[in-house]
Amino acid sequence: MVTDAQPALSPEQDAFLRGRSDGVGAYLVLHAWGVIALAMAFFIAWPNPLSFVVAVIVIGGRQLGLAILMHDAAHRALFKTTWLNDTLGAFLCGWPVGASLTLYRPYHLSHHRHTQQKEDPDLILSAPFPISQASFWRKMRRDILGVTGYQRRMEFFRMEMGDDPSRAKRWLNLWRAEKYFALSNLAILLVCAAAGVWWAYFALWLLPLLTWYQVISRIRNIAEHAVVGDNDDRLRNTRTTLTNWGMRMVLAPYWVNYHLEHHLFVFTPCWKLPAAHRMLIAQGFGPRMELTQGYRQVLRKAISNPHDDPDHGKPADQRKSAALI
């Protein structure tokens, strides 16, 4: 049973943290797409192996950023106006990276209601930890080589097509489920083609989405809820990872590292989470909070089990499923 105790806010603090802004929301969405465009232009202007790696890392980070902004829209915290959350959060943030706001919202709100409890739909992501270094690095290889991204999409396709005996109906189901992802990616391809760099869609959009995006999504999931202090304490069953600007740029865009604050104040826009953190520290909650200095420290905890290798000895199909966790 999760402890209900929560830090108290003054009416002024509560009003501040609840305040949302259409202008800031629009800026964050434009910022994400602007950084992606600049990273693409950077490699196109100076094509070499180093600039390619930099572009993939930056673009993959902003693709995660789009997913994070969609997450804010799922809480109706990205924009003040509801229809902007539901429309722009879906079409400009979620669908381009293959995420459905409509499907994500009820799933994610269930995670908030039952954080780290048996009813938590995200418990599967944190429960296996700590794991062995061998298991962790095997998953990282699958992520960076695009195996995880490919397998995830294939699993989504199979699930969306269903088991209807009619092949036409199965393809129709797939189109209904994936049409916005397909259309948004077609739009990106057409923009690249109009700019005379059609190949950029594959090399500088699709490749980061299948590789670096998968790597940092896994690290973010580990950091948020794996090997936390107490599953029943709201101050300890979710982690905030304190890190520098450079790491936030490539691993934790749009303040997603302040995850404990997000769970305590779900109504707070992502750009106010640092303020929420300062409020908690000022109230003396720091020693009770699950705080970690940097992602390296988190990973040391998460891969600290030398005897645990969940993939060892499993059939190939089970190892494939484990790669997605």
UniProtKB/TrEMBL annotation:
The keyword Membrane applies. It is an enzyme of class 1 (oxidoreductase). Residues 306-325 have a biased composition (Basic and acidic residues). One of its GO terms (molecular function) is oxidoreductase activity. Its EC number is 1.14.19.-. Residues 49-282 form the Fatty acid desaturase domain. Residues 303-325 are annotated as: Disordered. The chain crosses the membrane at residues 24-46, 52-71, 83-104, 180-210. Keywords: Membrane, Oxidoreductase, Transmembrane, Transmembrane helix. The keyword Transmembrane helix applies. This is Fatty acid desaturase family protein.
